[in-house]
Amino acid sequence: MWDSWYVEDAGVHHAFYLKAPTSLGDPDLRHANARIGHSVSTDLTTWTTMPDALGAGADGDFDDLAVWTGSIVRSEDTWHLFYTGVEKRSRTRIQRIGHATSPDLIVWDRVLTVPIATADDRWYSTAAEAPEFDEPWRDPWVFRGDADGLWHMLITAREPRTDDAGAPGSVGHAVSSDLRNWAVTAPLGSASGFRQLEVLQVLEVEGRHVLVFCAAASDVMNEVIEARTATYTAPADGPLGPFQFDRAEPITAPGIYAGRVLRNKAGDPVLLGFVEADAEGAFAGVICDPIVLGLTERGTLQPGSGRHPYQEGGE
């Protein structure tokens, strides 16, 4: 188990997460074998496993190899899952966004067998630049804008490459009025100082907006930012930015990657993410128990009175 995302319905928390069989042996093989698992909880600590939510698509479809990280929103009586799809033809090199719906968070049906959003080379790096390049376009985070009433999708993307040094990661952006038809727009900011901004999320804490993302230590390009493989937060002026990447800092919960921030019963923001390595350094593949966070004067999030991130009882 690794990346995860969450929704709450009638007091029940639903965790959706990437999973792959341990019989693969090498954990690096998990990305080409990922499907979306599902568990439920009333306290974010004790979980009951449900049937898997979604697996790979049919042969020839854009997601026929594996499905990756996404997010879920509700509109009227329908739940909408937006996820990342990767195909057999290009393996995991080219990534695109897919859409599935459910009446109950249990049974999911694909809306289309083609992607609903792909990287636009006017603003984003694509495989068309060179055959060896990746086309990052993944981890959709969807929310409804208060000001315009539109649905917004934040996407892990990259600026077009201009030299051999590589391009920084960017916050890809798409908008929709109905959750079914999406228009890709220019990125929300540039020159992030990170080679990639994975598993994006934006939320409001104590009246201030915060961008949550993760990156490896090797992804940090800005010398003023602490380089650590971790979940990061950065202050934001609003849900669509501008994002103050130069003030980004890692959450001091060592070993927790692809973290998501949600609310516990007390209304406190808590971090849940996957544990990269156990005490012996082997891939752990579990999701931590919730870690309580607080807003700092810097406008970032750091642990408050949370428990140790890796305990027995984590899902």
Automatic annotation (TrEMBL):
Enzyme Commission code(s) on record: 3.2.1.26
Kindly give the CDD domains that the UniProt entry links to this protein: GH32-like
Specify the Glycosyl hydrolase family 32 N-terminal domain's residue ranges.
10-221
Q: Which domain of life is it from?
A: Bacteria
Gene Ontology molecular function: hydrolase activity
Keywords recorded for this protein, A-Z: Glycosidase, Hydrolase
- Output the InterPro entries linked to this UniProt entry: GH32_Enzymes, Glyco_hydro_32, Glyco_hydro_32_N, Glyco_hydro_beta-prop_sf
User: Which Gene3D superfamilies does the protein's record reference?
Assistant: Glycosyl hydrolase domain, family 43
Q: Which family does it belong to?
A: Belongs to the glycosyl hydrolase 32 family.
Q: What is the protein name given in its UniProt record?
A: beta-fructofuranosidase
Lineage of the species this protein comes from: Bacteria, Bacillati, Actinomycetota, Actinomycetes, Micrococcales
